[in-house]
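note to self — DONT lose this again. spent like an hour looking for the file last time. sequence + predicted structure for the chain T wanted, 231 res
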Amino acid sequence: MSEENTLQTEDKKKSLRDEFFDFLKDLITIVIIVVIVRTFFILPFQISGQSMYDSYYDKEFIIVNRFSYLTYDKPKRGDVIVFNTHIDGKEYFIKRIVWVPWDTLKIASWSVFVKSAWSSEFKELDEKYLSETNYKSTYVRWSTDEVIYEIPKDSYFVMWDNRNGSTDSRACFSTCELSWKSNFISKKDIVWKIFIDLWYFNLKTFSFTNPNLGINTKPKWFSSPESYNYE
């Protein structure tokens, strides 16, 4: 083999080696970026169940945002959040924040009333995001008796939008009988809030028709009812 051919062969080997290392560096960079984004910024979720009906539906895809709560934003009334349940077999729940720390919440006459820390009287919430079935149909464990909750510091009271078909802060998430359980969730348990609503795309029918409900609704994108102004 001539000296020229030997040099060409070595150049090819070097070129392939450089290409491999360039590819490896790009791959590592992409993996690091994905891990950072999924850990600190956004994450896709698929909803399971009808607890948020009819603001959100079973099988619906959402993108949740973690970054805002880690930086400039605070959980506020109306936010739909994903949080850690600390319940075996149920890693995360999706619910709506109904009231915030230091305030008082009352459930009476099938409705929700709130009193801010700076107010002396209760004000009924007009929960327009609820479906017709759930609107003015909120009670505690099948009782119409008046119940008052004092929201502690750094704690939040959350409820499903499907008030008649789920459990939430009203009943300690079905575990009030345990002495260590609480009606409230702490700020550290809140992981994400809903950022984008992508809905559910049915590949069989090539449409946005939910296979279980037969409802045909397009994505709400950024107009998703993740927040509601109670003022």
